[in-house]
Amino acid sequence: MEDKKVILSVKDLVVKFRLRGKILTAIREASLDLYEGESLAIVGESGSGKSVFTKTFMGLLDANGWVDSGSIMFEGQDLAKFKSEKDWLKIRGKNIAMVFQDPMTSLNPLKTIGKQVQEAVELHQGLRKQEAKEAVIEILKDVGISESERRYKQYPYEFSGGMRQRVVIAIAIACKPKILICDEPTTALDVTIQAQILNLLKRLKDKYNLTTIYITHDLGVVANVADRIAVMYAGDIIEIGTCEEVFYNPQHRYTWALLSSLPQLGIKGKPLHSIKGTPPNLFYDIKGDAFAPRNPKALKIDFIKKPPYFSVSPTHKAKTWLLDPRAPKAEPPESIAALRKQWRMIKND
Amino acid sequence: MLRYSLKRLAQSMVTLFIIITVVFLLLRLMPEEGYFGQAYEKLDEAQREAILTSMGLRDPIHIQLLKFYKSILSGDLGTSMIYRPKVPIAEILRAKIPYSLYFGLTAVLISLVAGVSLGIIMAKSKSKIWDKLGTGYIVFINAVPAAVYYLFIQLYVTDILKLPILFKPDNPSSWILPAISMSLGGTASYAMWMRRYMVDELNKDYVRLAKAKGLKSKAIMVRHVFRNAFVPMAQYLPSTLLYTISGSIYIESLYSIPGMGGLLVDVIQRQDNTVVQALVLIYSSIGIIGLFLGDILMALFDPRINLQKKGGAR
Q1: Per-residue model confidence as pLDDT tens digits over A233-245
Q2: Domain boundaries, chain B
Q3: Fewer CB within 10 Å, N side or C side of chain A?
Q4: Number of CB pairs < 8 Å for A and B?
Q5: Do the Cβ atoms of B214 and A171 come within 8 Å?
Q6: Span B92-271+286-305 CATH architecture
């Protein structure tokens, strides 16, 4: 991973929203380096800021939100400084494209599938009329829509959910982007369709050499598609590492809690672990480690000072005081300890 | 589409038949004094009988009804009985309809263009100054009785702009204010619905996707949002256009325009049965045709609407 080129670099990003006269901080100094060609998954519970974080890369924040500070470097430009629509039009689609969560509502109900994909083709590939139409039919085939000539003329209501998501993906691909952001691409779909869509995304990523970001709270999806995982909590990335590192050797107490809540990791006969309390209220300033109030074993310093990143390996780092050499030795819960044992076995092999 | 249209047409004919029959019968239940108006006192019993007989009102009811059907089927609306005795109804209407139609259509056109544009501007600047001004206008128009601002316009605006107070067919400047006054209400309601549907559409996911695709917001508005927002309004457009034929009672009496406004009320009061029947026939046909055209227009705009299958889109 080290030798790979950084394609998008986010530094200390702060995003705020004005809501009913009050100001809410949705992203709190989050940083992220995205490497070219990789597949990164951002996980976290609802409201942790996963979607908002990636929306800032495309200038798609709602009207009441703004980037307060920090930078988003992409090809020598700081996207955080973009203000006008004209600036964003250079990025949207062409460089960064997005697949949204709900395919049932993501398409314009009054336009044919073909025309909606064609818009992207005409905009970003500079093709016109017949040429563009042929390109669209080719792309539709590519995303697994059979009889694409006939399907070209059909309307969204004639498609099932899974097929519509393929169309949404086709629109994203038609833009020929460098980075593809998939915002919970399978959440709204049937379980049987989910796997098909994930396989499709994986295949397209290889074919078009895309860099992909998956936003999800489904850790099953993560294991399936991602090279690296970023765990988000209360608007910050608190742990990031390769899939194996985060799954088998998690460092942050929140990551422990998150993984312990997985039904697959539950211990038979014992109640399933659940994280007590609620995520912090983002209207207030958060002091120290955002997870501390929900963490029964929080250290004193967790309430006072925000932890910096501590490196576990060149590719794995976490924001937790537990990794400070002065911290007391903390024993992870049973299920996490079991994972670590497996991790050591893998490493020794 | 053709089969649907034919089926719809047959249904409409039945509806129309029922309407005119019921109205015809109801009219025969009116008190007989009504046919004479002020003259009732001056006439003796025999004279009254003679008049009623001459008007055909002494025939058995089924004979009257059959006569009525026959004349309608042959395209004859009959002659007026009291309003303008012995004058063919078609002639009365022919003189009046053009005025109402002219003012009505102009007003609908103005309110459609002004209302839809205002609605779009309001939706685009939601919660900002234009939206607030527009809302102010809509609230004003809906809260204040139309007669009030019609009167104010006639009294003061004619003065300020040096326009004539009354309508004269050969003076084009006297056509302006009635048409504008008439369009104010329509403008407000088109603006209100357009804004509402636009805001609804702008918050939909497909707009976000169009944005993420890299489309300019202008293109998103024109190619995606507008059409979706306009569909629910399209349905009522044909009826609105057709109903302009009935004219506006207020405006026409205010500016003394010799149009259709008030004619129906007038002839009902004077119990001119044949004219009432003719007007009911015309208005109900218009209503039925308007609804039908509205359905067709909706189907043209929105592919999800399938007029032939019950249940429509999945």
Answers
A1: 999 999 999 998 9
A2: 92-271+286-305
A3: C
A4: 72
A5: no
A6: Orthogonal Bundle (1.10)
